[in-house]
Amino acid sequence: MKDNTWGVLALCVKSRKLGVNTDISLHCKIKTKDFVIKSGLPKRYDVRPVKELHGLSYAQLTDRLHKIIRVLSAAEEEGTLTVDMARNVARNVITQEAPEVGLKRASKCMTLKNFISEYISDCESGKRLKKKSTRRIAPLTIKGYKGFLSQLIAYQESRHKVIEFSDVNMDFYHDFCQFFLEKKYSPNTIARHIRILKIMMYAAKDMKLTDNLDFTCSDFAANWEDVDNVYLTEDMVQQMYSLVITDDTIKSFVRNLPESEQDLWKRKLRRADTKKLLNEAKDIFTVGCLTGQRVSDYKRIDKSMYKTLRDGKQYIMITQEKTGKTIYIPADKRVKVILNRYDGKLPHIYDQDLNERIKIIGRILGWTQVAGITVRKGLMEYKSKKKFYECIKTHTARRTFATNAYKAGVPLSAIMAVTGHSSEAMLKRYLKLDDKERAILASAEFSKVAMGS
């Protein structure tokens, strides 16, 4: 059929063999675009003229083809027409699976970038909730989605190409990973972005916006690696807990530094409220080491979370911000002592400030030994010369709890009940063990298999 204003749209079948079932294809000619898309409708090929198709009269079919042309031509006028969008519009209009609003939505989401932008907006507004839940998506998760979107935009600019759903195949996967390697990103940073990409593609598939399933291939994987990071031993946790930073502590610390470092540390510690801020950071981080939660959770622990269960012992009940899981943490006496210093509620602190201040505390405590951790950046792997205190992060607290609990003989399942990890495999990535300890852990796993056989 022809429309002098809009373009040409023709029905065609690919098989000339009588009695063969085949998809009906739409041959579209819209101004500068010329392409063939499958309508998704099957047809048993017949040489006779088409008078009726799936219950549609010739007039109804013509009306719907005109509607497809109008929608696609409008998209072409705006410069937003893509094959993926055309395919979805055609199927929706012919099968009447979606109203006009659905067509506008399909037009808006014609590229991967635009779809992700809308997905993020839906998360922020509360329109899109956690899967199988009535809870809103956590701000930290949305922040990760935004970070991925920025990387996708940068990738498109570097490759001079707009990525559509149909482009997400193994060739794209390898080139996308190479893009991150060129930027010297670590394996786990790359894996995090691949995981988010797959989340977005599954969402698009569920919304019938794409029928591309290449991303479900086993090779299209987020390849996580064990990260070599530091943790605090029980003695170090106790050192931090017992430390009280006073003016004399700071003066003595600076005085005992090499002269070449004194000016630098004087600048770092020059604020009048330095001792107060460092003591608060020390206490908050110690609570993290004693509870095993993420920083977003351990910063908000307060006295109202204490519950006494039927065993007569006290526990800290907290609903994790990221997962929505309700966790019961055996209450360490030191946590209550710390809370009592602040009338039951920890002081507010930003993550970045906490990260900076716990490094200063580590330096004051004399943790200047070389950490000896292995670092991977892009294709390079090397032993870092960073000192221990320089490697302490907010997340070190969670790793510290899990590792110390495991070394104390606590079963992995019990540690998981407190940390909220969904699997032992995920938990094991947190454990900071040497080769001998890993061998013992592996032996325990082999014993389970032997007992089951």
Please identify the oligomeric state. Answer: single chain
Adjacency order of strands in the biggest sheet: 1-2-3-4
Specify Rg, calculated over alpha carbons.
Answer: 30 Å
Helix share of residues?
Answer: 40-55%
Walk me through the structure:
- The strands form 4 sheets. The protein has a 4-stranded antiparallel sheet.
- It has helices at 58-78, 83-95, 100-108, 112-125, 139-159, 170-182, 187-206, 234-242, 247-255, 259-268, 274-291, 295-298, 333-340, 351-364, 396-407, 412-419, 424-428, 435-452; strands spanning 2-3, 7-13, 21-30, 33-44, 52-53, 56-57, 306-308, 314-319, 326-330, 374-377, 380-383.
- A hairpin with a 2-residue loop joins strand 5 (52-53) and strand 6.
- The N and C termini lie far apart (68 Å).
- Helices cover 50% and strands 13% of the residues.
- It has 453 residues and is α+β, with helices and mostly antiparallel strands.
Brief synopsis:
With 453 residues, the chain is an alpha+beta fold.
Topology record:
Elements (H helix, E strand, L loop, with lengths): L1 E2 L3 E7 L7 E10 L2 E12 L7 E2 L2 E2 H21 L4 H13 L4 H9 L3 H14 L13 H21 L10 H13 L4 H20 L27 H9 L4 H9 L3 H10 L5 H18 L3 H4 L7 E3 L5 E6 L6 E5 L2 H8 L10 H14 L9 E4 L2 E4 L12 H12 L4 H8 L4 H5 L6 H18 L1
Antiparallel strand pairs: 1-2, 2-3, 3-4, 5-6, 7-8, 8-9, 10-11
Helix pairs in contact: 1-2, 2-3, 4-5, 11-14, 11-15
